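Hi Y.,

Following your request, here is the sequence exactly as I used it, all 372 residues.
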Amino acid sequence: MKVAVLEYLSGGGLQKDVNSTSLFNEGLAMLTALAIDLALCGHDVHTCLDGKAADDPSVAFRSAKAALCASFAERKTQLIVHQIDHDNDEHSWMNRWIEVASQCDQTIVIAPEIHQQLENIVAKLRRSGAIVVASSETFLHATSDKLSTASLFKKSQVPHPATQSLSSYLTSIDQLDESKPASAVTLKRRDGAGCVDMKVFANRGKLTDWLQNYAPQNLLRDEWIIQPWLIGRPASMALLAGDEWQLLGAVDQHITLDHSSKQIGYAEVSYLGGSGPLRGVSVEQLENLASQVREALPSGAASWIGIDFLVPDESVDSKNLIVIEVNPRLTTSYLGYRKWYGYKLADALLGNVSFSDLKLTMNQQRIPFDAS
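Below is the corresponding structure, written out as tokens. Let me know if you'd prefer a different format.
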């Protein structure tokens, strides 16, 4: 089978930030791991690499291509790398992706939700006739828009932080419930991925002061949400979605707060990867939470789904796991899970391998779950 693996960060989408070497490397790590695993499963792999990425385009492209090709040197399957040349056309990379996907039997997209990139890319590829291994556009939209996700969770009584849009907050400051004025709050992107651009304020007063005196004007749009900053242990689980949702496992997330901006009111949130398996939470708890999430969201979930959640602190009067967000996409956690399940995990993404077959190769030692 011919499989296209199209990764946004290293495959052309990062054209406006061509010097973001760390992002390029993170994307390349996911791309390389999945390409190798698909090759071991017997598939020919097509992919794209950005000829402009990093400081020295020619070196960056050659080294990335060399790393990929080296992993295929002794394999009977093929690796075909297509170079992306932008030619002053911001849409050229997407046109090239459509061309590559049209040559393949199936396509896997690795892309962020920010600016609706994931759902737009999947929609464009599908309109071109490509068979994309991804959830339905309805499911992608509901989970990429964190405000929509919160509304669905509230309706279905899924444990989730109270959520409101920034524009709603700005028009109702005087009417807000101030019963817990000292509680910390977080400001994050409505279409955010992970901890990108997330800030934590000691209380609502600090947030309001920052918004009125320091915030850039582009924050004063309906692209941001506000939630309480809850106390607990950050974690995530990964699932393979289809007719059923199969739990792959769960891991701790390593989250840090940078207080260098404390003088102007906030701390910045950073994600430093994770490690697993998660301790102190039963499989039954994880499966129950996944079931609640599934019932609350639209149908059409497919392939890799991630659920970020919080294990409540012992000081909190609740034993319920709290959903933070749903990631309808492949993330760097794949680099960890493949160490547990082996290369057949890639075939499971395509629906070619049953979950019971994966379990036979599982080696669940505690390992880091990041791009290192």
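The domain at 2-134 is CATH 3.40.50.11770 (Rossmann fold).

Thanks again,
Q.
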